[in-house]
Amino acid sequence: EFELVFLRFHKFVKHMQKPYPEIKAMLSPLHENIFQYVDARVKDLTNEVDALDFASATKSIELLRKLGQVLTGIYAVYYEDIRDFVEDVSLKHLNDICSLHFGGKALSNLGPFYALLEVPPNASQEDIDKAFRRKSLEHHPDAQARLGISRDNPSEMQQKIIHAKDVLSDAKVREHYQRGFLEPFADIVKRLPQKLRETASESLHARDYDRTKALMIAVKDLHLLSSLVETTMDADAVRKSISIAVKEHVNQIYANVNKHWSKHELKGLNQELSTLDRIDASFSAYSDIYSSSWSNAIKKIVEDDIEAIATKARGILQGNEDDQQMHTFAFQLVRLGHIFDDLPRFKDYAKLKMGELLDCCQDQGEVGYLFKLGMLLEQGKVGTLDDQGNVVSEDQRISRVILSSFRHFKDVMTVVWNQQTGGTQKDITATVNEISSKRVSRGQSPIDVDVDQDLLSQGFQKYSEEYNKLFHEWRAGQLQLEELARELVTKAKKLQPCRVGMWGKLAKDSLPFLLAGIAIHFTISKSGDSYHRLLKAGSGHGQRITLQPASANCQSAKLTTEDVLQKPHNIQILTILRLFGYDSNSQSLANQLMQIRTGEGKSMILGMSSLLFSLLGFRVRCVCYSEYLSQRDHALFKEMFAAFGVSDQIHYSKITTFSEDQTAAKGNIRELSLDLMHGRIASGQAAPTRTSEAPHPATICHARLSAPPAQASNAFSMLSTTPHAALAGPAAARPGVSSQSAAMNPPGAPGASSSLARGSPVPPCAPSFGAPSSSLSTAAAASSWLARGSSAPPRAPSSGTPTVAENAFASPTPSSTQEEILLVDEVDMFFGQDFYGQTHNQVALLDCQEVPLILATIWDSRTEPRGIVLEAVKKSAEYKELLRRFLGWEFLLDSEVSAMCHDVQHFETPPYHCDRGGNRIGYKAMDGICFDVVYGYRTAFAYLNEHMKNNFQDSKQALKSALKLRVSCGQFSYANIKPACILGVSGTVAALGDQEWDIMNRYGIDTYTNMPSVYGLSNFKFLDQEVGDPITITPSRDEHWMAITNEVITKTKKKRAVIVLFADAARLKAYEASPYFQQVANKNVLSENQSHDEKEYVIKKAATGGQATFTSAVFGRGTDFFCNDSRVHEVGGVHIVHAFFSLDKSEEVQIQGRTARQGKKGTYSMVLLEEELQKQLGITARLSGQMASRDMYNFLETKRQEYHHAKHSTIEESLRVATERDTLTHKYFDSLLAGQSQKATVLFKDMYQKIKTSSSGGGAHHVVFCLDESSSMQGQSWTDLKVAFGKFLETRIAQEGNAQDVVSVVTFGSTARIVFSMSSLEDARRRSIGFHSGGTAFKPALDCAKQLFTEGAGKSLTPVLIFMSDGANDDGDCTGNMKDLHTNFNDLQCHTIFFGSGGSSHLQRMAAAVPNGAYHLSVNGVQLSKAFNAIALGAEYTAARDM
Questions:
Q1: 797 cis-preceded (ω within 30 degrees of 0)
Q2: Contact between 774 and 986 (Cβ < 8 Å)
Q3: Radius of gyration, CA atoms only, the chain
């Protein structure tokens, strides 16, 4: 078709002789389009060959050869006719392509002759003769005259035809042309067999087994290319040669394994075993070239060796217990430790055997044997000796790994910690003098707040005296823990009721004594038994043990039995006293924050504070952003909470659980909503309060997208073994209601009930209460409350922690009149944008047998257009039955079914994790996989997908839990919390910005106290480090990875430990796949999807000498990379590589806190990628190598503050929306509780529709504008663009239902910059967009758009790209970039706009690359505004193409 049209066009242009200027102006875009098309097809071929897609490559070559015929034929004639009066660079480019790929000048000279005669390349002599006669008649001067065609030289064309016939009558000429016509790209094909062999060799050398496997799979299609060349492509021979290469490579790995094992080089062995694992994953299906039998063989060899070492060690234990015996036993333990640490696949077996040996030491050895053994290991005196007679460093490292990995040595670890802190602790007066406090109010500079140092010193002195008195009583056998707990509870009750608003002197004066009782209980319960064992090992109280401690870790010459006691240090006690207002004259307990340096015992402060508050009659909620950290901190005090009978008063949880519990305290909105739908709420009759007995929250991110259908398969056939009716489970007692409340779902069930969405209101002030009554009225009573009579007989000391059943008191039931104290761990997370400005959503699960059938039907039809599927579902019997059963609720059913039809096309977004054994699906959340997270119906379809693959052990149970109707029944603001008092501890308070303090001021928090470190001055080095570059900025991704690798290798060669933190798991994974990762020895990866034990193993190993650990930012908070390796400390400590720039300063401080912990040395550096910085901070200038590190950091800090200032307005808008939603929800909730069914129904509909408007694909959008600011846009064009942009915003604001839209703007010339991101419509309208000029490159702008859409992912926003340019770009075809965008955001809607005359083929192809893409042409400013306005008006942002 193109040939025919082009021939007519050629004749038209030729007939015009010299074209008019208007026609001439159209030629350049035509030539550009032809060139771009041919060039794109050549690039497609290159990519297809590189991707081993030989089927597509065959089609591309066939197409290109046809294009070659056109280019060397009719196009060559056209070129000869117009080249004299048209100067066009595209014509030159086309000629260059012909020369390069289509036979060059030789074929171009012959092609016009075939074109003149209009014969194909394979024309015979007879064909040429016939064509000559036909053309001679057509172009004979007489024939032309009869047609009225007049030419200056009438016989010119006739002469050309004669010449063409003469040339092509030569058989050799024709043969040359025909052969040349068949040769284009033949060299590529002919070289393929050898190229495949070479690529296989290179892939094996690089140990890229996925690539090698792909080669072996692709070889089978090699024969498809045979028809394109004269030689036969022998696919079998190629495959055989690759197979031989793989076999040889595998045999070499086997040889390496044997060599490493024979030399006991365990690190090298582990690396080769990991390589074999990867080979197994790639080639296990190729039994002719690879066998997995090696695994069982090596397993037996290593486990036999472990058993042999353990047997030898047991024999040593049975000998005489002297120093030599202990040293010999310890040596065998270190041998096992090497296997435990260096061969992770055998870690569990080695740990089992080592644990058994240490149990034997505990059971059979002398008192204190384990402690002495541990001290021997801690001193690094066990292992192979070097030439100087010292234990080699690797054996010293393994000794300390053993210490940190086995509970048997907890006493040694306690001794080390006590010695470290004891050597650096100042006297109490000097410590208190270093405490400082600030008040930060909105819009004002921080001001100093007085700290009553005398009162704090006195309080600590009272605490210390009471602690020592209680300890001596316990040691003398005069104090039992049960008695202590009972008396603490009794005495504390005499101070009740305590109230935040009436926090008087009596309660404050009692604090030191209460704290001392709690602290001594902690000390005895945690380390009392150890103390007695060591006491028994000596001859009397406090006898010193004659062991020389390691000089780097322990300060004193000898150890005493008291060094084994776990005790709170003075900073922790002073922090609690300050937190409780001990030094304050106020009669109220004030909201405040405490800054504690990371690694210095926040867990102890939170635990002791929680217990103290609960004893005083408060309910306590200790919240953390991480489930892992929350559970870890709770475990430290769990037994003590039980011993004091306050377990029900204290709750550790994530922030989401806290919000859920607050909602449940009012009633069960889910059950009441289901009752309303079923008509079970009688009008005017108050509904019974349904509280959630055991709320089990889940995060539900409603994101209604719109994208092309996913690949289909038959769900009905997959479910055939389980009838559809059975999918819904047995009929519930009440029709349509789940037999289990959403709040009572078992752990992991997808029917859980909460969610994250934008928005939250300003919290109200804490409630005030009246003065409490008290039977004690003097300070003297407080100071003597623990006095006990002398009639109690002395008892043997006890150290166990009693259970509740052993106590004489029961755990009190929390009362609704009790005030609740909120203790916040890491306040910057709680008051940051991840929670503040968002809502906790309530979803009721409607369990009807029709719902699973509807979901299965939609799953089966997921490749069909969404509208067709929706229409079919609404005609189904199941949907009609739901309408009949729930009269008046058609609006809800219609909305939910529409959501199902949408979500089925996006069930893999975000990526999910399938737990086969647990029959559940989870999603990445912070530092782990959360199985309580639900993403609308996408999760339901994920369950169907895994069921279809037989990936559940019990599919019926899994589907029963997942396939239910999700009824959104409320949104409660995370910010709308109402504790009586908010107290927080964090390592990053001083790093909080104005925006964070503005938020905290609204909660009534304006004060923080900075506590000194128990370890003295910090040894942290960043900008002032003596060796290395504090900040490295690299211009490319490859150089970024290289710089990280070089820094890791340099530091680990010096036996330092290095921890590298990437921005997220995706960037970490990309680095792992790079060749640079393979260059690093002794490496481990810490990731979210590892088990708890796997994480603990990597974390404990991370801070040991020569170790490199790679992880993501989520582990930069709260993860305790404890360094107990004196060798690491001696060479500079742990080094942190921050591989990205944190937009949150608090995150940066937290990451820095992973090193120089607890008085150790440590350094930190940033290795940054320039293009990421430019996108993050809107920087256009080059950064790499431009300024000194300190100046660079100051520059980046300024840009970070500008970013946060711009972000704050977005949070404010979310706050406004959330306030509205929260208010609507409470009105609806109140009407349910009051039994007002009609009012509740009206309120529900209003609330539900507003929720769905913001969460559906037709509601909230993230619109990313990519706007051309190249030189040609300067002046009026830029003004026109700004007017059009303003028109878009004005139109969206004027429409209802667009309040949740957010806008980001990218401007681009030669580079791209993010002007602002995710601003509300109103905020975007107030912003100005500056002009920078430059060239025109599309790809940097598309990269920025991808980054912005990624940042907005999970926020229920449909991505919309509006890309505008006024000219051709310099960086080639961008369809690949657009396809990549669509792959990552498959509901992407795209509009490309060309501003000017002529149009742009690049922009057209960009729009065509996206299913929901549209191309617009705007000749002038008026049309540009119309285009922007038309896009803004579209309900789904659709507009007519080619406007």
A1: no
A2: no
A3: 38
